[in-house]
Amino acid sequence: AYEISACLVGSERCIRDRCSGVWVAHGSGDADRETSDEHGRTPVPPEDPSYTLRRVWLSREEEQGYYYGFANEALWPLCHIACTAPRFDASDWEHYRRVNRKFAEAVLEEVDGEPAVVFVQDYHFALLPRMLREARPDLVVIQFWHIPWPNREVFRICPWQEEILDGLLGNDLLAFHIQYHCNNFLETVDRALESRVEMDRFAVTRGGKTTLVRPQPISIDFDRAAAVGPGEAGEEMRLRRRLGLHDLPVLLGVERVDYTKGIPERLRALDRLLTLHPDLKGRFVYLQVGSPSRVHIPAYRRLGEQIDALVEQINWRHGNHAWRPVVYLHEHHSQERLYRLYRMAHGCVVSPLHDGMNLVAKEFVAARTDNRGVLVLSHFAGAAQELTDALLVNPFAVDAFAETLRQALRMPPEEQERRMTRMRQQVADNNIYRWAGMLLSEAGKLFGARPPEEVHVLEAPALEEELAAVSG
Ligand code: GDG
């Protein structure tokens, strides 16, 4: 879901007609076109619509330049300090600008001259808020940036930093996962742009217009996650047999194959573990789910080859005809299957080199209705701020990482239970509805501060329904 560029428009018409707004999102492929009307709109779900999906059609060149190019080869590595150099290409930048403009036009069409709140998602739309603000100063525009914001020394290498920062300052409210990213953003603006930065109020004023900058950690639908496919009796055994897991404890990794997720570093720590502690051979299995991602980008293809080679080396070096230390599933899985694996695992290893939040960590915790299981979590994931009962690791420190994996394998059930119970409470209390509710209620306040003739208040119970419908 987070690979989709989208923004949510809640206009007066939506509120009046009790629909949950319009999702404006990139459309591709014949199926999208067939299900949309001549304006690119589709009611969702078709039989009893609760919101509208408005497609923005992108050409192959636009998708390449805007999405794979500038968003994922420049902004993604730039914001994740993960030792992969960003690639700044003027024609990608041009596509990025052009596609942001296309989305601005679609949003303005949907808003149709009425007062509205626009909720923009992610780093694919750094320029969109300013475009909206220029066309319609009365709109309330808020944005959530799902990835980290680097420090100002890193960000200043971007040749178009001023335009990006100015674009983001078109927002009334700009939110990141954690305070540290907010501070980095404010310091970057302070250094790069003419503006008034108030560090005590977490606000930037430029051209007489203020943008509030706030931390709001994203989460998951805890109750729904806790209930996903427990599976039938016997299913775990069949799965174990099919994957060659025997009845051994499983350490699990789940991610898109992305260099920010630290998969090679994790495999090196496993290699070190088995070298330092050969007694562990044949005593556990590491299962890696790696769903293919952004495979058109050379850095991702190289990463895929590197992972294949490491898995092969480790299995060759430490395994034997009856036991393979690493089982690698390089494919996309259903959500039910993922949750079955979360429940089956002895531990989940989430060790990104840098991550805005990392939802896998929270999903693993939500899945463990048995209050068991060990979470090994990188210091450099936003989730580490909340899940302090995980075993925290530095994924670059290979020896300490290996020892932490050993500690995870040896953790007694009582300690697992103590830690897991506290983590479950944390994720249950701070779920996705809280995240959305906090951001939309901030938007509501900003909306309320507009002149009286533009005020449209969404009542709290209605808001909850709207959110449930959108997330469902
Ligand atoms: C960005 C930020 C931030 C993975 N493989 C499969 C699959 N997944 C699902 C997981 C999880 C999601 O993908 C990954 O979420 P993350 O949060 O771990 O990472 P990013 O995709 O990089 O997301 C990140 C996030 O935005 C939200 O703000 O936390 O920091 O980088 O939900 O379960 N799902 C299925 N099959 C798979 O094979 N069904």
Report what the structure shows.
Strand 8 and strand 9 form a beta hairpin. The model is unreliable at 452-463 (pLDDT under 50). The chain is built from 18 helices and 16 strands. The strands form two sheets. It has a ten-stranded mixed β-sheet with strand order 3-4-2-1-5-6-7-10-9-8, with helices on both faces. The longest helix is centred in the first third of the chain and has 22 residues, at 90-111. Helix 3 (60-79) packs across helix 4 (90-111), helix 4 packs across helix 5 and helix 11 (263-276) packs across helix 15. With 472 residues, the protein is α/β, with parallel strands linked by helices. The structure holds GDP-alpha-D-glucose. GDP-alpha-D-glucose binds next to strand 11, strand 12, helix 13 and helix 14.
Notable characteristics:
binds GDP-alpha-D-glucose, 16 strands, six-stranded parallel sheet, ten-stranded mixed sheet, 46% helix, alpha/beta
Separation of termini?
12 Å
* Structural class designation: alpha/beta
- Tally of strands: 16
Quaternary form: single chain
- Overall form: globular
Q: Look at the structure and give the mean pLDDT.
A: 90
Bound molecules: GDP-alpha-D-glucose
Estimate the strand proportion: 15-25%
Across the major sheet, the strand order is 3-4-2-1-5-6-7-10-9-8
Main sheet characteristics: 10 strands, mixed
Gyration radius (Cα, Å) is: 23 Å
Task: Please mark out the parts with pLDDT under 50 across 5 or more consecutive residues, or reply none.
Answer: 452-463
**Count of discrete alpha- or pi-helical segments spanning 4 or more residues:** 18
**Helix coverage percent of residues?**
40-55%
